Amino acid sequence: MKNRIIVIFTIVTFIIGFMIAVQFQTTNEPERDTRSLFELRQALTTEKERQAELNREIDRQLELLYQLQQTEDVEDVMLDAIEELREQAGLTEMGGPGIIIEVKPIFDESYEGGAIRTVPPYLLRMLLNELNMSGAIEVAVGNERIITTTPIREVNGVTLINGSRMTQFPLTIKVLTNAPEDLHHAVMASQSREFFSYENFNLEVTPINYVKLPPYGNTLRVRYMNPIKEDS
Amino acid sequence: MWLPILGLLIGIFLGLFTEFRIPDAYSSYLSIAVLAALDTLFGGVRAHLENVFNEKVFLTGFFTNIALAAGLAFLGVHLGVDLYLAAVFAFGVRLFHNIALIRRILLDSWFSKGKDRKETQ
């Protein structure tokens, strides 16, 4: 009798132990990677590109370091570096081959609705993304240079870029690129052109040999970055 | 005495090494079932210590409690009411109650043993 009770208890504890272990394993199971082969390849390519970019950056910095170590007059090299950084940040006027996009409102006979005052920000964002995808180097909308931190938002029904109102028509978008013809075709065939037409806008694109982009006019405020010390 | 603990350890090892897993959607049912099983186990231990242990009651209670708890949780999910909380509450209260009773019985027997030894000396 006593033995039987112990056997029953053993069976029951065995079942409980098994259930606890299964439950433990189920809740501790890490998130499964459900990416397909194609997605994995894509991710790998992105990472490789990133690596190549980082390597290039390291090379550049090493070269700069070498220059600084070699030359007696460090000031020139540093000034060059600062100028290059200013160029990267969009604080200098830039020129070169590119395209000019003119955004004009179109009214056909069946047009109903109010006056068109401004280009909606989502369209501009879409266009900028497509331009960047198709090989744009620098972009300026109206008189405002687009830099990394440029805000494009709508305030009281008017689109603001860098805090300036974009109400003038036609709105000119100047784009600097190495291959103006290609970018011209890309914009003409782009999805954003279609979306612009839904909102009664027409895009006119002209490739040009020399286009001049204004510098970023406002002061760049760095609020959340601090210089780190050499040894840290 | 040690055989049930050995059974528990073997069960845990087997569960961990067989890589047996249940879908995420059912893990809440399993947790309720574990709770019900533990409750029944401690109830059985208590009954055994009180000398009222009945293996038929214990075994049927073990399996019906598990099934009922999981069924209640299942019903709750489909009714949109957190019915599993009722099971958690009931089993939780009973679990604590049983463990408290087991503790008392063990303490009583231990102290009475000590007293007996003193009296015999």
TrEMBL record, chain A:
Asked whether the UniProt record includes Transmembrane helix among its keywords, one would answer yes
Transmembrane ranges, per UniProt, are 5-24
Source domain of life is Bacteria
UniProt key word rRNA processing: no
One Pfam family here:
DUF881
Q: Which InterPro entries match?
A: DUF881
Q: Which residues form a coiled coil?
A: 37-88
Q: Which UniProt keywords apply?
A: Coiled coil, Membrane, Transmembrane, Transmembrane helix
UniProt lists the family membership as follows: Belongs to the UPF0749 family.
Identify this protein by name: DUF881 domain-containing protein
**Organism annotation:** Evansella alkalicola
Lineage, broadest ranks: Bacteria, Bacillati, Bacillota, Bacilli, Bacillales
Automatic annotation (TrEMBL), chain B:
Q: What Pfam families does the record tag this protein with?
A: DUF1290
**What is the recorded name of this protein?**
Small basic family protein
Query: What kind of membrane protein is this, topologically?
Result: Multi-pass membrane protein
Q: Where in the cell is it found?
A: Cell membrane
What family, per the record? Belongs to the sbp family.
Tell me the keywords, alphabetical order: Cell membrane, Membrane, Transmembrane, Transmembrane helix
Transmembrane domains' residue ranges: 28-45, 57-77, 83-102
